[in-house]
Amino acid sequence: MKIGLYGGTFSPPHLGHIRAARCFVDGVGLDKLIIMPAGIPPHKAVLDPIPNEKRFEMSKIAFSEIGEVSDYEMNKEGASFTYLTVRWLKTRYDGDIYLCMGEDMFLCLDKWREARELFSSCHIVCLKRDESSYLEIERKKNEFEREYDADITVLSYEPLPASSTEIREKIKKGENLDLLLSDKVAEYILNNKLYI
User: Fold this and answer.
1) In what order do the strands lie in the sheet with 122-128?
2) What CATH code is assigned to 2-159?
3) What is the pTM for the complete model shown?
């Protein structure tokens, strides 16, 4: 089995995340995609934190037709380190783990905790946003393959021209969220008065 792991803060999960998830599934032929909302991400502070259970519910709504949302990292104490999540997944699933990420995370992957273990225990899948980053991603891909004997797949996709940060600002200002959030996620945010 090919098991994908796609992590993130997902606050909120937007159409760009959904598009990326579909690209991971189709691009490498995943049998299952595990979406992993982060508990305490070690690499960034979460501004305007939303309770974990709300992010979990939004993620379940957003990714309902694509994959399985796990609360494993949300329920862990302390920071969420991917290598520990991968170890946990390997105890639950018999198959290969495909660690799925965007280009920003890919370019600094060698700086992650226990990076060597990640490279040896996972296939790495990177989503490339556009041609402007092609050379940098190819350089890193070659470096990782040479240094770590890594197995790396680079996929291209059309990104959503907005980030979660920008979407949270639009929610605060009461601006239109069409083409940014699924209708059901937007309805959940409205009903629960999130990000206002």
Assistant:
1) 68-69, 32-37, 2-8, 96-102, 122-128, 151-156
2) 3.40.50.620
3) 0.93
